[in-house]
Amino acid sequence: MPSATNGSTTPYPTSHETEEIFLLRGRTTDGKLTKQSAFDSHFADDAEIIVLGQDHLLKGSYSKEDFKSEVQSRIAKIIDYSKPGGTYEVIRALGGGDTPYAAVELKTTGTTKAGKPFVHEYVFMLRYNLEGKITQMKGYFDSQHVNSHVEENEGKAG
């Protein structure tokens, strides 16, 4: 069965295709995702997004809409996108192809509204369906790092 994204003979998106999907999440200088609708199109309508971690302010199970409003936007609000040097990179993607499971390692850097460096390295574990859509995404974040920046920065004017 061809993959939904490249017509290859693998039933699921390959690691390269997974990397390309996550590259859609780059941000503009005002913090908006550059290709949010293109990124969202790779999720099944009923996709489950789980943020794991002990004592994590953002942990929980979310629909894709709730994840955007309760996790992505919360982190985006603490970053000062007017400061130069912010980056988003896909370090590597693994899996997919012949298996419905894939992983993507990411790194985001920037400056918080409190003026501190924000360097966040994290991993998403993915499960694809046979249509090539993400049905589950589990996020493994640096809980202490994210918590400290969220607690310090929430409520500061942007």
Report on this structure.
By secondary structure, the chain is an alpha+beta fold. It is built from 4 helices and 6 strands. It has helices at 15-23, 36-40, 64-76, 143-153; strands at 43-52, 60-62, 87-95, 101-111, 117-128, 134-140. A 6-stranded mixed sheet has the order 2-1-6-5-4-3. Strand 1 (43-52) and strand 2 form a beta hairpin. The longest helix has 13 residues, at 64-76.
Secondary structure blueprint with pairings:
Layout: H1 15-23, H2 36-40, E1 43-52, E2 60-62, H3 64-76, E3 87-95, E4 101-111, E5 117-128, E6 134-140, H4 143-153
Parallel strand pairs: 1-6
Antiparallel strand pairs: 1-2, 3-4, 4-5, 5-6
Q: What is the ordering of alpha helices and beta strands?
A: HHEEHEEEEH
Total DSSP E strands: 6
The order of strands across the largest sheet is 2-1-6-5-4-3
Low-confidence stretches: none
Q: Characterize the largest beta sheet: strand count, sense, and whether it forms a barrel.
A: 6 strands, mixed
The percentage of residues in β strands lies in: 25-35%
